[in-house]
Amino acid sequence: MTAATPQLAVVADIGGTNTRVALAEAGKVRTETIRRYRNAQETGLDAVLVHYLSEVSARPEAACVAMAGPVRDGVGKLTNLDWVVNRASIAEATGAGTVAVLNDLQAQGHALDALAPEVLTPVRPGQPASARAAKLVVGVGTGLNAAPVYHLGGQTLVPPSETGHVSLRATTPEDLALRDWVAERHPMPGFEDVLSGRGFERIYAYFCHAEGAGDPKSADAIMADLDSDPRARRTVDTFTRLLGAYVGDLALITLPFGGVFLCGGVTQHFAPHLTGPGFAEAFCDKGRFSEFMRQFPVHIVTDDYAALTGCACHLDELARLPG
C-alpha cells in the first residue's frame, strides 16, 4: 500500500453515550458518511461496525477505533461503558487487514496537524515554534486525560496515559479543604474528581457544605445561575483556576512548545471562561518558571469530529510506512 493508492478505512469514536462511525481515505474523513449510534441501543462495537458497513455498503481495508479508556496490546475496556474493544474482533467485524485501537486522547493527538485554524480558539498566544515541536492535548469531558504528541521521522507518536487520575494537589488552604472533602467520598482523589463534568458539580456541592447552606446542582443549572448565584460564579472560577494549574504542570512535564490543545465537551462549554485571565494566570503561576510558561501557546479545539480525523490520520501514516 502506498500514498498513491489510498486505502478505504472505517473509523469510529466511542463516547459514553454515542458511537460515531465514518469512512475515510488518505487521512481525511468523508463527513457525508458519518453516522451516530446510541450505545444503549447496541450490544457492542462489533455490532455497530457490522450495521454501519451494511448501511454504507463498504468493505474497508483498514479500521481504527478511538475509545474512552486505557488500551493495552490492542484491547481496551471503556471507562464509562461495559464494552470491551478488541483489535481481533474489529478485524473480524470489518474484514480490515490493518486495525488499530487508540485511547480517545491519542486519537485527538493524531488529529492536531490536520485541524483547520477555524476550529482552534486561542487562549494564550505563546511563541512560534518548529512544526515538529512537541504538543500536548488535554481532554475535559465526562472524564479527564492528557497525552503528549511527538514527531519522529514520518510518524506521529502519541503515548497513552491516564493522567486524569494522578493525585489531586492542593496549594492553598481552600484547595486543601476541597481535597479533604473529596477524599472523604472518593479515596485517593485525583484531578478528574474535580476537573470533569461531575467534578464541576462536586466543587459546587463542596461550597454548599463549606458554607452550610444551599443544595447541590447539576452542571447545567450551575452555569444557568452564574448571574444570580455567587456560589455558582465561585465554582466556575475555582474550576478554571484548578484546570489552569493542572495544565501548566503537564506543560512543564512535556514541554509542548508546539502548543497545548484543550478538547472535550466540558472544555467547549467553559470556553468563554478559559479565555479570560483566570486560566492563563494559573497556567503561568510557576514561581521562577512563570516567565518560561508564557512561551506555550494554548488553544481550544472546537472540532467535534477530531477523534475521527485522528484515527484516519493514524491509519494513513501506517499505510505509508515502508514494508
Brief summary of the model shown:
With 323 residues, the chain is an alpha/beta fold. It has helices spanning 45-56, 87-94, 104-111, 173-185, 197-211, 219-224, 230-254, 265-274, 277-284, 290-293, 306-319, and strands at residues 8-14, 18-25, 28-29, 35-38, 62-67, 71-72, 75-77, 84-86, 98-103, 120-124, 135-140, 144-152, 155-157, 260-263, 298-301. The chain is 38% helix and 22% strand.
What topology emerges from the helices and strands here?
Elements: E1 8-14, E2 18-25, E3 28-29, E4 35-38, H1 45-56, E5 62-67, E6 71-72, E7 75-77, E8 84-86, H2 87-94, E9 98-103, H3 104-111, E10 120-124, E11 135-140, E12 144-152, E13 155-157, H4 173-185, H5 197-211, H6 219-224, H7 230-254, E14 260-263, H8 265-274, H9 277-284, H10 290-293, E15 298-301, H11 306-319
Parallel strand pairs: 1-5, 5-9, 11-14, 14-15
Antiparallel strand pairs: 1-2, 2-3, 2-4, 6-7, 7-8, 10-15, 11-12, 12-13
Helix pairs in contact: 1-2, 3-11, 5-7, 7-9
